[in-house]
Structure to design on (105 residues):
């Protein structure tokens, strides 16, 4: 039996990053790109939590190899999910980024 690999290390590292206030922009293209990146990161975090309780053992599991590369797989899932339209968060985030800029004049 192989030792369990803690897959939460990568997610914990992301959570320890300082949170900064968003910077407004008047460029809708920049706001859209930033909003999509935010949504992709959100989906990745959500999927990471969903996958954290799934065992990699068993007849169809990938064992320690799967556990080791799971964070990369989840990151790619998040990017692909966002590229296919995501959850619709990007539209709201984009509006807020543009609104922040309008309010700072």
């Amino acid at each position: 039996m192989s030792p369990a690999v803690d897959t939460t290390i990568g997610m914990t590292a992301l959570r320890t990053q300082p949170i900064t206030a968003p910077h407004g922009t008047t460029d809708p293209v920049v706001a859209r790109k930033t909003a999509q990146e935010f949504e992709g990161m959100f989906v990745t975090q959500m999927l990471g939590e969903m996958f954290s309780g799934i065992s990699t053992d068993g007849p169809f599991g990938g064992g320690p190899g799967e556990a080791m590369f799971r964070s990369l797989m989840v990151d790619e899932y998040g990017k692909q999910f966002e590229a296919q339209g995501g959850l619709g968060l990007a539209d709201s985030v984009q509006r807020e980024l543009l609104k922040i800029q309008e309010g700072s004049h």
